[in-house]
Queue: 3 jobs
Job 1
Amino acid sequence: MSQLVAPGQKLIEEQLPDGRRVYRSAIPLPGNLPDILARLVKWAVEQPDKVLLSEPGEGARRSISYGEALARARAMRGLLVGLYGLSKGDCVATLGPAGVDALVLKLACLSGGLVHAALPPFPFRDGVEGEATRPFLDAAKPKLIVAPAGHPAIEGMGAISLIDLARESTGEAALDADEQTAPDDWAAIFFTSGSTGAPKGVPITRGMISSNQGAIAAMWPFVAETPPVLVDWLPWHHVFGGLDNIFKVIWNGGAMHVDSAPTPSTMDASIVLMAEVSPTMHIAVPLGLKLLLDRLENDEVAAAAFTRNLRAIFFAGAGIDAGLWRRLASFRDRHGDFQILSGYGATEAASTITLSPAPLERPGELGHPLPGHRIALVDVDGRSELRVSGPNIAPCYLIEGRRVELPMDELGFYRTGDAAVIRPRSDGIPVFGFDGRLAEDFKLSSGVKVRTGPLRAGLMAQCAPLADDIVISGEDRDRLVALVFPSAAGRDRIDEISARIAGWNAANSGGSTTIARFGLATTPADRAKGELSDKGQIVQSRYLRNNAELFEALQAGGGQAPKSA
C-alpha cells in the first residue's frame, strides 16, 4: 500500500534580514508542473473509458468518462466560440450545480482559455440584476451567463440553459487542439464566503491550480499513487469543492461521484453510494461529518462498507470542535485502516495553504506549509497572524469592476487575518495550530481584549455534546454574554448547560473569558441572511449584526446567569 504522507516531513525555520522568522516544508515543490488540462488529456489517452464523474439521475446514475469529458469539452468550446462569439480571456459565469454538464462547461472553458466564474446561487435565486447580484456581476463581467434549466435567470438576465448548451454541443465536432495558455492566465473566478466581510471576487490562475495539486501530491503521495475516489457533495461555487476537489480528481486520474447535500433524510442513499464505489478519501466539513457519524456510529455493516478502501478522512483543521473530534477519532479507532488528516486554506490561495505532515493527534492542527510556500507568524496586537507567500496566492481581488490588491505586507506575504501558533506533537513534529480569527476579536469597555476564537472553542469543548455552536458578544460592554445553539441532546438540558458554563467560569475567571449571562437560541441561524456559511458554520459577525436585540436583552438581564447544578 502506498505511503500516506511523504517521508522526511520537517518544518524548516529561516530568519529574514529584518528578523522575521519564516517557515517552509522540507518537501520540495516539483518543477515543470503541467497544466490541469494537460492532466485531463493524459488520462483521456491512457484511460479513456474510466469514469471521471457521476451524478444522481432518474434511476441509474449518469456518468462521463475521461475520453468523453475531453471530447465533449472541446465540442462545447467550439460552440462557445462559434455561436456565442467568446474568445480567450472572456468570462463565462455559471449558476449550475455540480454534475456532468457543469463539468463539461468547466473543462470547455479550460480548453478555450476562457474564465469560468462560479456564482453563488442564493443572491441569484430570483434571476434579476439588483443590489444582491450586482457585486458579483461587476466583479466577473461575464460575456455569458449559464444557468440550470428553468432557472429565473434565463428569463430575467438573459442566461442560457446549461442543459440546452450541453445538448447543442453534443452534435458539434470536437476541436483537435486547445487554446494556447500560460500559467499566469486566469482559469476561474471564485468568491470569498463572506465569513469575515463582504464577498470578493478572486481570480485563480492556471499556475495556481498546478502548484496546488502538485504540492498536495508531493506531501501526500497516496493521492497520486491511489487515484482518489470521492463521494462529494461540496458546492462548486466554493474553491473547496469546485476547484480543489474536482481538480484533485483530474490531476491524479481518479473519480468523483456527486452526492446530495447531507441531511438526515439523504444519508441512507449516501451510504448506499459509498458502498457501491468504495471511496478512498472522504473530504468533508463539520456539518457533513456530524451527519455521517450519526448514521454510521451504530451501524457496523454501513461503517464497514464506507471504510473498505478508505485511506483518509480530511477536513479543514480550523473548523472542528472538540466534541466532534472525539467522535471522529473514536470511529477511526473502531473501523478500518484509515487516518484523519487536515489542512487550512483560503479562496485567495486556490484553496490550500497548509496540510498535515502526519495523521492528526488533535483538532486545530493546521499542519505544514505546502511545498514551495513560506509562512510567517507576525505579531498583531499580541497575537501571531499567519501570513503566506508562494505560487498559490491570487494576483488580486475583483471588487466593483476593479482589480484591488490583496492585503499583502511589506515583504509580499498575504495577510490571512487568522492567528496561529506553533505546537509540538508527541512525535516531535512541530505544526501550526489555529488560534482564531483576528477579525472576530473585540475589546470590553475596560479595554480588555477578548479572543473570540479560542474562547468559543473552549466553551464548545466544555459544553460538548450539548451545544452545536455558541455566539459570544460584549464589544464595548462591561461583560460577556453568549447565545448557545443547543444540539438535539442539549435542547431539554438547560440546567446542565448552565452548570457546564459555570464550570468554565470557575476555571477561567478573567473578564475576557467569563460568561455573565447566556440564553438558548430558539431558531437556527438563517442562511438566507448570510448567518450560516455553506460549510454549516455560523458567521459570528453577521449573526451579531442581524440579531443585536438578542444580545442587548442578555446584557439587560435576560436569559440566565450560569450556575452550578
Note: The CA atoms of residues 441 and 451 lie 5 Å apart.
Job 2
Amino acid sequence: MSSKKNSDRFIVVIDQDKIEPDLARETVINFDPLNRAGKEGGFYIDDKEELHIDDDDVMAAHRMAIKKYPYDNAIRMVQLISEEEGEPLHQFGNNTFRLYGAPAPEKGNVVGILGENGIGKSTALNILTGDLKPNLGRYDEEVEWSEIKKRFRGTGLQQHFNKLAEGNVDAAVKPQQVERMPDAYDGKVRDLLEKVRDAQEESERKDLEALAEEFEVAKLMDRDLEELSGGELQRVAIASTALKDANLYVFDEPSSFLDVRQRLKMANKIRELSEDAAVLVVEHDLATLDLVSDRIHVFYGEPGSYGMVSNTMSAKDGINQYLEGMLESHNLRIRDEPISFDRSKRSQVEKKRAVMEYPRLEKDFGEGEFSLEIEEGEVHREEILGIFGENGLGKTVFAKMLAGVIEPDNTESLDISISFKPQYLEAKDETVREAISKHINPQNKRFEVRIAEPLGLEDLYDQDLEELSGGELQRVGVAICLAKDADIYLLDEPSAYMDVEARVELGKTLKRFARKTEKPLMVIDHDLMLLDYISDRGVVFSGEPGIKGTADSPERIENAMNEFLKEVSITYRKDPETNRPRGNKPGSQKDKQQRKSGQFYEQ
C-alpha cells in the first residue's frame, strides 16, 4: 500500500494578507537555505511588496525558513500526494491554489463529485460551465483554446472542452447557499420562475405549472422569497434550475435543508434531467449522493492549496473508497485514517438525572393554519436527542417553544435556559472573532480545546461573516451556540453545507461537549448517518406537512430511526464494507425484504 505522501514535489501557498514584508525579510528570506548559500531560487519580495517563491525551486529544506515566520498559516508548504496529474489545469496566481484535472460530464449520466471543501470542486465546476477559462497553470498569460484541447486530446474531457471552445455549452447551475437567494431577488416565487421561463427560447419553454407540482413548489408560488424556509428555498432553487433548457445541469449541494423524503424525490428528478443532458452533482450527504449518482469522481489534495481528481468510479466504490481513504485504482492513500461512524457505543443516558422535563405541548396558529401537539418527555444529563421528521411538521416550532421564543397554548413557557442555533447564521458585516467575542473570549482555554480547535475556527477569526462559505458559517453558528452558558443546547440542521470530514468532526465535537459538560443537546438534522452516529435517543415527528404535526415521547435511537423511515416509507440497508446507511431503491428485493420484516433501518 502506498503512503499518503508519495511525491517528491512541494508547493508553497502564501496568504499575502498575512505577510508583513519587513518581517518576511528578517525571517523567511533571511533563513532561506538558497538565499544563505548565495544561490538563486529562494524566497523574495517583489515590487508589489509581496512574498513569493517559484514552484520549481521549492524543496524540503525550505520548511525550516517558513517556520521562522510567526503568523500561523500565512505560509503553507505542502507536499503533493502524487505527480501523476502533471501540470495544473488551472492556477490562480503565484503561490496560490491550483487544480489538477476535472470530472468529465457525459450526457445520460449523473456524475457525482465528492471531496472536502476548499479542494477545488467549485473551480472545476466554473471551468466546466464556461465561467472560468482554464490557464493550464500559466496564470500570467492568455492560453488559447487550441492548446487546451490539445492537452486533453484522448481523454474523457476532450469532447467537453471542444464544446466550450465552440461556445456550445449551455449550463444551468443551482448555487450552494440558497438562503442568500432573497438578497439577489426581491419578489415572489412565481415572478422568479416566470422570469427564468421567459428567458428561454419559446419553443424550449417548459410547462411552469406542471414543473412546480413536480418539485413541490406549487403552494409557494405566491409567497415572497424572503418568507421561505431553507428547505423551501432549496426546492425553488432546484425547480428554477430544472426550468432552464440546458445541455449541462450543475447542482451544488441540492440536499441541504431538505428532509429525507424530499431528498429522495429530488434525486429522482435530477436523474430524469440526465436523460437529455449531462448532470454534475456536488453533495456531502452520502446517502443522497449514492442515490443520485451513476458514477463518482473523488477530489483529494490539500484544502486551500491544491486539488486533484480521481478516475471515475461507481457510486458505491467511490463513496466507500473515499471513506476508507484509499483510492484503489490509483494505489493511493488520500487520508491517514478511514472515516467511520461507530454506531455500537451508546450512552445509558436513561440512567442519568433528567435535566428537563417538558409537559405535553400544544400550539395552534389559527383556523386553516398549522397546529402542533407534542407528547411529554424528558432530557437527561449528557444526552444527545435526535429530532426526526419531514419539513413542515413543527420541529423548529417545538424548538422555539422550548427556547421560550413561542408560547405554548396549553402551558407556560419552561423556566430553563436554552442556547438555540437556527438553521443558518445571518452573514453580517463583522469578523468571526467579533461575532464570537459577543458570547465568549475566543482565547478561553475550554472554548479553544472543546470547540474552536475541533471545528477549525482559528483560520476564520479575521474573516468577515459575509466572506464565509456555507459550511464555514455553520461551524461559526455551532461554535456560538455551544459557547453560551445554558441548561440545554438545541441545534437546527448543524450539518448543512459541511463536507463529510467536517460532519464527522462535528459529531465528535457534539458528543465530546455533551460528555464533558454533562449538558444535554437536541439536534434537528436530515443527515441520517450523522443523527445515528451522535444520538442516544430520538423524537419522531409525523403528520401532514404545513397543516398538522405530532410527536411522541423520546425513545431508543434504533426504534426512532425505524419509526421515522416507516413514516416516510423509505428503507435503508447497512453497507457491509463501511456500515454506512444506504437507501434501497423502491421495489428492489432488499427493499421488499426489509418492509416485510418491518426493519426499515437495518441495524
Note: DSSP finds 21 helices and 28 strands in the chain.
Job 3
Amino acid sequence: MRTLHTRLHTELHAGLHGRWGIPAVSGLLIAGSAAITGLAGAGVAGDTVMALAAVVAGTPIALHAVRALLARVIGIDLLVAVASIGAVVIGQYWEAAAVTFLFAVGHALEQATLSRTRSALAELVAVAPDVAVVLRDGGQVEVAAAAVAMGETVLVKNGAKVPVDGEVLAGTGAVDQASITGESIPVDKAVGDQVFAGTVSRGGLLQVRATGVGADTTLARIIHRVEEAQDAKARTQRFMDRFSAWYTPAIIVLAVVAGVLTGDVVLALTLLVIGCPGAMVISIPVSIVAGIGRAAKDGILIKGGEYLEKSAKITAVAVDKTGTLTRGRPRLTDVVVLGPDADRAAVLGWAALAEAGSEHPLARPVLDAARSEGLPTDRLPEVTESIPGKGITATSGGHRLLVGNLALLTQFGVADDRGSGQVAHDLAVAGRTPMIVAVDGVVVGVVAVADEVRPDAAQMVGELRRAGVRKVVMLTGDAMPVAVAVGEATGVDEVRAGLLPQDKLDVVRELQAAGYVVAMVGDGVNDAPALAVADLGVAMGAAGSAVALETADIALMADNLLKLPEAIRLARRTVANMHQNIAVALATVSLLLLGVLVGGVTMAAGMLVHEVSVLVVILNAMRLLRSRTQSHTPAAAGAPVAFVRNNARRATEPARR
C-alpha cells in the first residue's frame, strides 16, 4: 500500500510539474467557478475562483514576458500577459481565465507536437549502444560502450548493437545500417569491411577492431550535426524573426490607439490577444526541424535550414565522374605490347614498378593486376614524380620510366614511333583509361584500366530532372573519349573532360554566371575547390568519412546516388510546407483582426482560433515526417549529350587524371 501511495504521489507530482500541470489546474479552477456560479449564482466566490484560474495559468506567461523584456525582446507572452492582466483589472475574469488557459493548453500541445518533429534525433539517440563485449586477457568482458579503448577487439553477436566504429578482423555477418545510412536491407560484412556504432547485427559473429569510440563515432557526429542543423535558422526564418520584432510592437501600438480612439478597453485588450504572431513565429522552424529530421532518418545529413532552402532552389548539378557516376574502383582491362623485345609481363611489370611510388587512384589496379599475375610488386623506384594531367615519371635501377599520355612523352622527348597514340585513342573510345608505358625513351606498350559505371547512375540523372533540375554536368579529369562513353551511358546533359581541380571550379562558376543554382557532388579531395565555390557541396558515402561529415553542406551517408534527387525533392517539399504555414498564419491573424475591428470576435474566441492555427501549422509540418515512396522508373541512357572541350589539348589525348 505504501509503495502504491508513493507511486501515485510521484506520478501526480510529475503530472503537475510537467507540461500539462498548469493547464490541468487552471481548467479545474474554471470548472469549479462555473459550478459555483451555477449553484449559487454570480457572485464574489465564483469570480474569485475564476480570477485564481487566470493567475495560475497566467503567472508563467507573465514571467516569460518579463524575462523576454529583460533581454530586450517584445514577444507573444507580453501581449497575452498585458491582455489578461487588463481583463482582470476591468472585471472580465472569464476572458482572462479563458485566454491564459487556452494559451497554456496551446503551449503544452506545441511542446508535445514539436517533440514529435524531433523524433528522428530522439531515434538516433536511442540507437546509441550502451554496452560492449570486449576481448581482454583472453576472455570476454562486458563494459560500457564509452569505456572501449581505441584498438581493442569487440565481439558483435547476432542481434547486438555494434558499440564502436571499427574494422572487421574476423568473421562474417549481416548488419542493419538503417540508423546511419538509411539503407533498408542489411549489408553483408566480412574481413576488412567497416562497421558503425549504433548499427545492429542481423546474423553471424564479428570481431571488430575499434577505430572510433564514444564521441568519435560516426553516430555521435551525426547526432551532433542533426542537433545543430535543427536549431540553425534558414534565411526565411531570419526574415520572419525580423518581421516579428517589428510586428509585435506594432500590435501594441494598434491596441493603444484603438483603445484611445474608441474608449473601449475590451477592444484594445482583444486586439492584443488576437494579434499574437504565434503561428508566424513557429511556422518556419517547425518545418525545418521536421524536414531535417526526415532527411536524417533517410540517411541524408543536411547541415541546417539555410542549406535546406538552397537545396530546394538547385537548378544544375555538377557531378564528378570517378567514384560518383562510376564505382571508383577501376580494374586493369588491357595490356597492349608494342616493343619488339617486350611481352605482356614486361609491359605490366614496368608499369607496376613506376606506379609503386604513386599515390594516384589508377596505380592500385595496375599493382593489383601485376600481383595477381605473379609479378613482383614489392620494389619501389628511387625517384617518383607526378606530372599533373599527364602521368608519372620514375627512376629505378638506372632506368627512366614514363607512364601516362602523349603529352608526357612529348615533354620528355619520347617519339611515338610505334602507334601508341592510336592504340590509346582506340582504348579511350571504348571507355577505358589508357596509359602509355615507356622505358629509357622507348615506348614498350599501353596498359588500360576501366571504372564501371554505377547501375543506378542513369536513373539518378532521370530522377534529378523529375525533381526539377534543368542541367546535369559531368566533370572529369579523364580523356574526352572515356568521358563520352560514361556520359552516353548515364544520359547527362553535358560532359567536361580533361579537367584539373581548378578547371572544375571554373565550370561551376560558369554555370553560376549563366544563372544556375549549382550543387557540386564529389569526393571532397580533388573536387574540394569546386565543392567550396558551389552553392551547395554534396558528399557521397559520408558514413565512412569524418571530413565529409564536417565540411559538406549535405552528406549522403550511404553510397547511393538516388539519395541526391531524394534530398532535393524533400527540400522542395519542406520549403513548400514553410510557405503553406506562413500563409495559414498570416490569413488567421488578418481575419481575426478584421473580425475584432468589425465586431463579433471575443478575446477568448480569438485565442481559441489562434491556438488552433498554431496546431494546424505544426500538424502540417509533421506531414514531412512521413516517408514517401520514391519513383524507380529507369532513366533512358544515351540521351543527347553536349560534350564541351574545356582544355583542347588534354581533351583529345588519353589522360591519367
Note: The first strand starts at residue 131 and ends at 136.
